[in-house]
């Protein structure tokens, strides 16, 4: 594998972009930093030279003025190079002096600026006394110094007795640059290159780390898009990428569970439809073969199976409408206590035939927004569940009360009960217990699912729990009409 292929397979497009951006930004910053600092060093160093030289020139002119006062003329320096060099060594000694403003001791003047050849001494008439030229003192004096020199007046008692010529720092910059500035810029370049290499290594590591994680996420989502929901990502750390990995794992688990439930749902529906169809086919074949006569009893059995099949289809249609949020439930303001009491009283005889007694406490005047038709379906499904799964002699107790902004209906029956671990699954479609509450009464397993869907259509909650009577307790919480928003009407 070539380096280019390894690079492409190791880094994701996002990692490559991140690496490129980091490299570009670091190169630009390093270049700008180098040129800015180099310019600052250049200007700052020249400024330092100027200030330092000015202090040395002030010291030198003061020393020359004192020498003139002592000797009364410049004859002691006329072409006397030894005296001139001695004076320069004393005046420009590395020990430094205090500036007139009281600043701290300055560093020694660079050798190029302390070279005696950089200075020239003129008398009050502007004639050269010593310095810069090899001419003899008897040669014709020059009235004009070289253009590159600057001059500082030498005064004694308010009278100018001479001038000191010197070269500006800019004039000797090439010498200083070779001994100082180039060294500083070289060190700066080494530092910046080192920092740039470190930044590139860091960018490469970060891009590799980010690219590997994002590539794993991309492969996981691609697998899920192709229908493989078993993929799981390793979750490391607590950053946003770790949170995204957890979300992808949760999504994969949810999709896997949804597919499994859907497959189970289709299989269970097929089983539920096959049972009455098998019975119908058997009855019809028996009639065709002459095994069973075509009488009222046979027709009644066929009619019963058709009714069971029709109820199952209707239940499935209602659940499909609920899933599509298209369940017809025209809402109106109604008295929940009175409405529920009427439904229970109508079912008292049917409960008695199953050996169940009824007790209820349903005060009137508790108003909610509800659909009378859908509420009757809800009470009918709860009654059917109680009749089918409560052992005689048993009892059903229903109470209604207000709790804050909610109307609370407590529906509880007697034994047998439901294991705690199965309570949360009671409203799942086609779920049945392998216990006393099982399929012995021929239920389809959709009644409680329909009850849950009808409850949600009223913006209410349906919560199961164990009942003190030994059976099952359902707690239904409806928002009161006074605190609920305007009722919405959902049409088919």
From TrEMBL:
It comes from the Bacteria. This is histidine kinase. One of its GO terms (cellular component) is plasma membrane. Keywords: Kinase, Membrane, Phosphoprotein, Transferase, Transmembrane, Transmembrane helix, Two-component regulatory system. Residues 208-260 form the HAMP domain. Its EC number is 2.7.13.3. The keyword Membrane applies. The lineage of its organism: Bacteria, Pseudomonadati, Pseudomonadota, Gammaproteobacteria, Oceanospirillales. Its main location: membrane. Residues 268-482 form the Histidine kinase domain. It is found in: Membrane. SMART domains: HAMP, HATPase_c, HisKA. GO terms for molecular function: phosphorelay sensor kinase activity. InterPro entries: HAMP_dom, HATPase_C_sf, HATPase_dom, His_kinase_dom, HisK_dim/P_dom, HisK_dim/P_sf, TCS_sensor_his_kinase. The chain crosses the membrane at residues 20-41, 188-210. It catalyses: ATP + protein L-histidine = ADP + protein N-phospho-L-histidine. The keyword Membrane applies. Residues 95-116 are annotated as: Disordered. Pfam families: HAMP (PF00672), HATPase_c (PF02518), HisKA (PF00512). CDD domains: HAMP, HisKA.
């Amino acid at each position: 594998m070539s380096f280019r292929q390894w690079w492409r397979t190791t880094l994701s497009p996002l990692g490559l972009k991140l690496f490129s951006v980091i490299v570009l930004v670091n190169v630009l910053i390093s270049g700008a930093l180098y040129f800015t600092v180099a310019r600052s060093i250049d200007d700052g160093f020249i400024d330092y030279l100027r200030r330092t030289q000015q202090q040395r020139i002030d010291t030198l002119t003061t020393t020359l003025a004192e020498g003139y006062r002592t000797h009364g003329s410049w004859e002691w320096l006329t072409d006397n190079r030894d005296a001139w060099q001695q004076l320069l060594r004393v005046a420009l000694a590395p020990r430094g002096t205090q500036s007139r403003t009281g600043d701290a001791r300055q560093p020694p003047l660079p050798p190029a600026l302390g070279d005696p050849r950089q200075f020239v001494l003129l008398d009050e008439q502007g004639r050269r006394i010593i310095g810069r030229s090899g001419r003899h003192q008897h040669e014709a004096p020059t009235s004009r110094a070289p253009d590159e020199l600057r001059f500082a007046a030498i005064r004694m008692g308010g009278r100018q007795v001479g001038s000191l010529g010197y070269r500006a720092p800019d004039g000797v910059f090439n010498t200083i640059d070779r001994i100082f500035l180039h060294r500083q810029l070289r060190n700066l370049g080494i530092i910046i290159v080192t920092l740039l290499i470190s930044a590139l290594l860091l960018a490469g590591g970060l891009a590799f780390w980010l690219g590997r994680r994002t590539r794993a996420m991309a492969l996981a989502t691609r697998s899920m898009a192709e229908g493989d929901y078993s993929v799981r990502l390793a979750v490391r750390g607590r950053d946003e990428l770790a949170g995204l990995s957890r979300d992808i794992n949760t999504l994969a688990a949810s999709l896997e569970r949804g597919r499994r439930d859907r497959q189970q749902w289709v299989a269970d529906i097929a089983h539920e439809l096959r049972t009455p169809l098998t019975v119908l086919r058997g009855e019809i074949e028996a009639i065709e073969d002459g095994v069973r006569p075509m009488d009222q009893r046979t027709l009644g059995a066929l009619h019963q199976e058709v009714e069971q099949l029709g109820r199952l289809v209707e239940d499935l249609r209602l659940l499909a409408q609920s899933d599509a949020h298209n369940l017809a439930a025209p809402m109106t303001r109604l008295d929940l206590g009175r409405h529920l009491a009427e439904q229970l009283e109508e079912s008292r005889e049917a409960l008695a035939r199953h050996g169940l007694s009824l007790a209820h406490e349903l005060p009137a005047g508790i108003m909610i927004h509800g659909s009378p038709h859908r509420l009757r379906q809800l009470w009918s499904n709860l009654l059917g569940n109680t009749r089918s799964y409560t052992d005689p002699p048993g009892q059903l107790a229903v109470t209604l009360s207000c709790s804050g902004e909610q109307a609370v209906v407590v529906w509880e029956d007697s034994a047998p009960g439901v294991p705690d671990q199965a309570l949360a699954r009671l409203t799942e479609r086609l779920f049945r217990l392998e216990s006393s509450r099982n399929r012995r009464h021929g239920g389809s397993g959709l009644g409680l699912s329909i009850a849950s869907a009808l409850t949600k259509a009223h913006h209410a909650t349906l919560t199961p729990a164990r009942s003190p009577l030994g059976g099952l307790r359902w707690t239904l919480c409806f928002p009161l009409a006074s605190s609920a928003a305007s009722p919405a009407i959902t049409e088919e």
